[in-house]
Amino acid sequence: MITKRLLTVALILVAGMACVFLVPSSSRLQPAGIVLSLPDRIGNDWVGRDVEITERERTGLAADTGFARKLYTNREGDQIFVGIVLSGEDMANSIHRPERCLIAQGWSVNDSQTRQVPVAPGEPPSMEVQRLLHARTVQTTDGKPFNLRDLTYYWFIGTHDRTASHWMRTFYDVRDRVLHGENQRWAYVTIEGRVTEGIGGVRQRNEEEVSRMIEAFIPQVLPSFARPAGSDAADKKSVANL
Q1: How far apart are CA 242 and CA 230, in angstroms?
Q2: 156 near 162, Cβ under 8 Å?
Q3: Highest-scoring range by mean pLDDT, 13-17, 32-36, 51-55, 69-73
Q4: β-sheet bridge partners, residue 153
Q5: What does the DSSP assignment read for the chain?
Q6: How far is 123 from 211, CA to CA, in rounded Å?
Q7: How do residues 62-119 score in pLDDT, each as one tens digit?
Q8: Can you give the pTM of this predicted structure?
Q9: How do strand 145-157 and strand 162-163 relate by DSSP bridges?
Q10: Contact at 8 Å (CB) between 102 and 134?
Q11: CA contacts within 13 A on the Cβ side of 113
């Protein structure tokens, strides 16, 4: 029985390694499923300003990686950050799990869960996104430690597919390269908000309030840069803006 199990494991490992060699080194790069730009206004309440892409970020990722970033503020002083990273030919050096970046920046991921959010205001259809609660200890102006908390929502948008899972995105990528000789040009979207409870000088928002704010914001901002999920026709506007 043990020998049979070992043989099964060995066959699975060999099959997995064989699949790696089957992935084409060069595949047809498909049109992006997004427009690589963000509007200056979202609805009647949110006004955005550009956020700088650092030199470290540019040099740390593939040269043909694309970026779009804005910080949106409403009349009440709430802020929501929106970031898009668009992969080029070398997806492995453009797109990665956000948890890796957060830990490298000194954050601890305290909670990770999958959520369903609407894809457009007032519409029942929803999409799956990943929600992270992460925290780090900072010093206040009077030298006391404070537990700073942020919420990050993220998902991936390809030419034909959307997913909140890094592993499913990898599966789609291998599937398309092996079966079709194609490379979906994946975009990684993040939307972040700070839990301001306990922070002086700003409107107090607890974790649940920030979650509701972000989940109401997503269907407002999504149509401004993403074409409909499952659309097979190349978006001429998105190609023109890359």
Answers
A1: 20
A2: yes
A3: 69-73
A4: 131, 191
A5: -HHHHHHHHHHHHHHHHHHHHHS-SS-EEPPPSB-S---SEETTTEEEEE-PPPHHHHHHS-TT-EEEEEEEE-TT--EEEEEEEE--S-GGGT---HHHHHHHTT-EEEEEEEEEEESSTT---EEEEEEEEEEEEEE-TTS-EEEEEEEEEEEEE-SS-EES-HHHHHHHHHHHHHHHSEE---EEEEEEEEE-TT-TTS----HHHHHHHHHHHHHHHHHHHBPPTT--S--HHHHHT-
A6: 19
A7: 888 899 999 999 999 999 999 999 987 776 667 777 777 777 777 888 889 999 998 8
A8: 0.81
A9: antiparallel
A10: yes
A11: 8
The answer to whether 77 and 203 have CB atoms below 8 angstroms apart is yes
37, two tokens? 């730009």
Query: Which residue shows structure tokens 């029985």?
Result: 1
